[in-house]
Design goal:
By secondary structure, the chain is α+β, with helices and mostly antiparallel strands. It folds into three domains: 116 residues, Immunoglobulins (Immunoglobulin-like, Sandwich); 88 residues, Immunoglobulin-like, CATH 2.60.40; 138 residues, Serine Threonine Protein Phosphatase 5, Tetratricopeptide repeat. The strands form five sheets. Strands 3, 4, 6, 7 and 8 form a five-stranded antiparallel sheet that branches. A three-stranded antiparallel sheet has the order 1-2-5, with no helix packed on it. A hairpin with a 2-residue loop joins strand 1 and strand 2. Helix 5 packs parallel to helix 7. About 17% of the residues have low confidence.
């Protein structure tokens, strides 16, 4: 008995197991069955494109091979050379070459393979084989290994599809702690046509920890930013592989979004390294000179500058311990605190743009004590990964926004999270938040 007949007999045995279990009153655990076959094979026709989708076999994790024929797949072959796609992709788009107007039926067979190169090419009706009827005439033979497999860089092997409306190509590159996203717009949404459609150039960036293979996958992705232009810089969380997709905002408005991997969605994830030779190293060996905010910025009498921490001697601590505790200060008159670097004009010219954005928030809504607006701006600012020092200062301001909106519990958590980086500043507000909680 050869291996193909063995697996054919095994398939028939697997199909009969539920009936045997039902007659004997016992259950057959599914994990005891070795099933190296794909399942839930489905097909969809659009113009001259046939889209196949399936569920990969959990038992073998090698390349998946796709066969096409004008006749049903029966027996054990042999069949023409297949198209090969990697494990985990779980879909394939085949382009049919039209010729005439004859209605034609094509038969597809998707065979699983293992890591050693073995292919389990046993067709199972309604499991890994399917028939597709094409309305318009097509060429009579499947020609694998042709130029359809010789795709351009960034395209998916074995795919020949229409360009999605809006975005025609997408590439990503990791540079240090950031990901650079570059994309190209389709001709209908190019600069030449933007005069008639001013909003056509707007694009939307999505990020996900799962592959973005079709439009419904956008529901589980994070919308990073709208109205982006190429190139765009993203700061994802280090150490996590991410998938990106870019769609034209006009297609979102019209409801015609189409995700095509390799065109407007990347195939392989990108990851910013969580560590390295410079990770956690303070590149500024000598501290910058302190700047007097009151002297540099007018109308700053309402602010109290943060000062450096001074360690007390043992004698001083003992003397302070003998002094009776003073009455609790009135929290309503507590003044907001800012860091000098966020009020200096030089902050607007620092590299990266993060310092400038935080400085704008501090000088704007935070300085005017519009706590609701400042809280909203800081939450949006912290929604993206930031430089640890910038993130700690923004968290310090966010905690103050909570405090001045009479939400000491929320503010307390923010101050506790920056206690290691700014111990004296955080401790002052931790005590103030605890005092407010007591009230």
């Amino acid at each position: 008995m050869n291996i193909k007949r063995l697996f054919l007999a095994l398939t028939m045995t697997v199909a009969a197991l539920p009936l045997v279990a039902q007659a004997s009153g016992t259950e057959v655990p599914p994990e005891t069955v070795f099933a190296p076959f794909v399942s839930r094979l489905e097909g969809e026709v659009k113009n001259n494109l046939v889209r196949l989708s399936w569920a990969d076999s959990p038992d073998v994790r090698g390349p998946v091979r796709i066969y096409r024929s004008n006749h049903p797949f029966v027996g054990s072959g042999p069949w023409a050379d297949p198209v090969e796609v990697p494990y985990g992709l779980q879909f394939y788009v085949d382009e049919i070459e039209t010729a005439g107007t004859v209605r034609t039926t094509f038969y597809y067979f998707v065979a699983a393979g293992d890591e050693m190169g073995r292919t389990y090419d046993i067709p199972i009706v309604s499991t890994n084989t399917i028939s597709i009827q094409v309305q318009e005439g097509v060429s009579a033979a499947f020609v694998p290994g042709t130029s359809r497999m010789e795709t351009a860089p960034g395209e998916e092997a074995g795919f020949s599809v229409e360009k999605p409306a809006g975005i025609s190509s997408l590439q990503t590159a990791v540079q240090g702690d950031r990901v650079i996203i570059t994309f190209t717009e389709a001709p209908e949404l190019s600069v030449e046509s933007s005069a008639e459609k001013p909003g056509a150039k707007s694009a939307v960036l999505y990020r996900s920890v799962h592959p973005i293979r079709q439009t419904p996958d956008l529901l589980g992705a994070v919308l990073v930013q709208t109205k982006i232009t190429s190139p765009f810089t993203d700061y994802p969380v280090p150490g996590i592989p991410y998938f990106y997709a870019v769609v034209a905002e006009e297609t979102l408005i019209r409801g015609t979004v189409e995700i095509v991997p390799g065109r407007n969605a990347i195939l392989a994830p990108v990851e910013v390294s969580a560590g390295g030779p410079d990770s956690g190293r303070n590149i500024r060996a000598i501290p910058l000179p302190e700047i007097s905010v009151k002297g540099a910025v007018p109308n700053m009498s309402a602010y109290v500058e943060t000062s450096s921490t001074t360690e007390l001697s043992d004698e001083a601590e003992k003397a302070l311990g003998d002094i009776p505790a003073r009455p609790r200060p009135d929290t309503a008159h507590k003044q907001p605190r800012v860091f000098a670097q966020d009020m200096a004009e030089a902050a607007a010219f620092r590299a990266g743009g993060e310092e400038h954005i935080l400085s704008s928030i501090v000088k704007g809504s935070f300085a005017s004590r519009n706590w609701e607006v400042a809280w909203e701006e800081l939450v949006r600012f912290l929604a993206l990964p930031r430089n640890p020092e910038v993130q700690a200062r923004a968290t310090f301001y966010l905690g103050q926004c909570y405090y001045f909106q009479n939400q000491p519990r929320e503010g307390l958590f923010e101050f506790l999270s920056i206690q290691d980086r700014y111990p004296s500043e955080a401790m002052e507000w931790i005590r103030a938040s605890l005092d407010m909680l007591k009230e």
